[in-house]
Amino acid sequence: MKKKIPYRKISQILFFIIIGGIAVNNALEEMGNGLPFIPALSLHAICPFGGVETLYNLATIGNYVKNIAASSVIILSLSIVLSIIFGPVICGWVCPLGSLQEWTGAIGKKIFKKKYNHFVDPKVDKYLRYLRYGVLIWVLYVTARSGTLVFKTVDPYFALFNFFTGEVAPQALIILGLTVGGSLFIERPWCKYACPYGAVLGVSNKFRIFKIRRVKETCINCKKCDKECPMNITISNQEIITDHQCISCMKCTSDQACPVKKTVEFKTK
Ligand code: SF4
Ligand code: SF4
Predict the structure, then answer these.
(1) Chain segment 105-129, per-residue pLDDT in tens
(2) C-alpha of residue 20 to centroid of ligand 1, in Å
(3) Does ligand 1 have an atom closer than 6 angstroms to the CB of 43?
(4) I need a surface site. Which of 17, 37, 134, 182 has the fewest CB within 10 A?
């Protein structure tokens, strides 16, 4: 059988290296040790969520929140266009924090086998999934009031590439530790329960152009798609996946988990 090219894995590794390299080099440059052949841009300048944080200030006083630049708003706009077309691919294919959780989760899967990613009672989990909207509202409120990046003080993404700079608040390091440690038990705990940017992009699942579609006529009800979904979405009883937590990872499709050809596909119709 022809070996499939792991496009998503390649994309995740590439973006981890590119984003991490740029952010770490920026921190090194501020310490006077940057490498000249790597662009030194602050993580805030290349973070699309910075674009969300600055929207209120931009709309009301025409200014960016401190540390945010036009580049964040441009990257945010691109990520929204991508999400409208393909769903939250930024979460599933690009975000280094999502990738790190997934890689840690691979160890958790080896340890806990079938129990992995099933530690939280589904009745409780269902409600916990809405926490990230609460985080989003909190971030927008405190940022609009203060005009500064308050989220930076708890942001595990910022902590991940800046932990050695002395700029990272202890609580952000603790949250990063909890996120990575939690990934040993739950797949992508930060994405599921807390990420405010995931909350923004997740809405696109309701109207995205390319959707995950299941053909019920050819489905043999093996539930392999459900088992493979990192976000615990039940695919096997739906025809179109519109769950707000889908990250467009494609793991459920007939190219990957589903054993029946053309039964779970990523397409417009
Ligand atoms: S496995 Fe399918 S339903 Fe689950 S997150 Fe990935 S693309 Fe979405
Ligand atoms: S993996 Fe494919 S055949 Fe099995 S339940 Fe899911 S859609 Fe049906």
Answers:
(1) 999 999 999 999 999 999 999 999 9
(2) 26
(3) no
(4) 37
Domains of the chain: 7-205 (no CATH), 211-269 (3.30.70)
Q: Is the Cβ–Cβ distance between 25 and 40 less than 8 Å?
A: yes
- Give dist(CA 161, CA 67) in Å, integer: 16
The pair of structure tokens assigned to 93 is: 């294919």
Please state, in angstroms and as integers, the Cα–Cα distance from residue 66 to each residue in 14, 44, 113, 180, following that order: 29, 10, 45, 29
Q: What is the pLDDT of residues 69-102, one digit of tens each?
A: 788 889 999 999 999 999 999 999 999 999 999 9
Alpha carbons 95 and 166: distance in angstroms, whole number: 23
Among 12, 250, 256, 267, residue to substitute to test ligand 1 (most atoms within 8 Å of Cβ)? 250
Contacts of 163 (CB under 8 A, 6+ apart): 173, 176
Query: Residue 240 in 3-state DSSP?
Result: strand
Helix axes 70-86, 48-61, angle to 10 degrees: 120
Contact criterion met (CB below 8 Å) for 204 and 92: no
Higher pLDDT, 154 or 41: 154
Pocket test for ligand 1, best of 213, 233, 243, 265 (most atoms within 8 A of CB): 233
* Torsions phi, psi for 258 (to 5 deg): -65, 125
Contacts of 268 (CB under 8 A, 6+ apart): 209, 210, 211
Name the one residue in this structure whose structure tokens are 């009883």.
237
Residue 220 alpha carbon to ligand 2 centre in Å: 6
